[in-house]
Amino acid sequence: MEYRTLNNGIKMPMAGIGVFMLTPDQAEAAVESALKSGVRLVDTANGYMNESATGRGIKKSGVAREDIFLVTKLWPTVYEKETAIEETLKRLDTDYIDLLFLHQPTDNWREGYKNIEKAYKEGKVKAIGLSNFPDDLLQEAIDTMEIKPQVVQVEAHPYFPQTELKKILSKYDMGLMAWYPLGHGDKNLVNEEVFSELAGKYGKSNAQIILRWHVQSGNVVIPGSKNPDHIRDNFDIFDFELTDEDMKMIESVNKNTRYYTATPELIAQYAKMELKEDI
After folding, report:
1. Cα separation, 130 vs 185, whole angstroms
2. How far apart are CA 98 and CA 40, in angstroms?
């Protein structure tokens, strides 16, 4: 494993497992399998409704809590709730969270940010960040909040490498965590000729080449899978290194194209979307 040191000195693994769109049973099994395979970063969220299952998977893995980098996110409807973080800790069955994000840039995000700052000061959270925030709101948080974010979580992949955002992040030594790191399973992306060529060169799969590109680009990756073999394969990326020429070749596939766009209407829906029971 390779690590990124955040702007507050915390060390974060460069690769982990995400449990987005997994049922509680799937999340529990995937987290247990990943941790037993050597993975040490786990990413969940209030909005995934599988935090309790993630906590169970951690316990069943037998891996010590202090060896795991646990990431979760507050959902907008609880940003202003005084007990939101305590309830999150209870679901995860842990005393602290390694990295806590605000999940969406709804109008009440400033109140939510003050709540995660408070948890940070109390030691319940080791690092804080923003997920899916546009550049202007990220800059506002940097300029106006007491504690600058340590990490942002955004869509990032070779078709959309977040070039402009990374210019902002580099100024403040902030990390980027990439969701849809493999382009939401888009075969057109995964099967681009450059990845097939490099896969042959290094004896790896196309997906492994893309994940390695992320790590060497400074991105933390959280590919999701419920298949133990795929989980292991996704982390078999630390025994080789792409050359500068390889990285340059991969730049050529950049289309500056997202798979997901958060419209104002969608953000307004998130603000009202109540969480279902987390079991």
Report:
1. 24
2. 12
Angle at which helices 206-216 and 244-251 pack, to 10 degrees? 100
CA distance 76 to 205: 38
DSSP character at residue 123:
T
The single-letter code of the amino acid at 135 is: D
Give one DSSP letter per residue of 63-79, joined into a string: --GGG-EEEEEE-GGGT
Tell me the catalytic residues: 48
**Judging by beta carbons within 10 Å of its beta carbon (0-12, 13-18, 19+), is residue 88 exposed, middle or buried?**
buried
Question: What's this model's pTM, rounded to 2 decimal places?
Answer: 0.97
Within the chain, strands assigned E span 3-5, 11-13, 17-18, 41-43, 69-74, 99-102, 128-131, 151-155, 175-179, 219-221
Cα 126 to Cα 150: distance, rounded to the nearest angstrom: 10
Instruction: For 212-270, write each residue's pLDDT tens digit.
Output: 999 999 999 999 999 999 999 999 999 999 999 999 999 999 999 999 999 999 999 99
Indicate if the pLDDT at residue 52 is higher than 90.
Answer: yes
Residues with Cβ within 8 Å of residue 204, at least 6 apart in sequence = 198, 212, 236, 237, 240
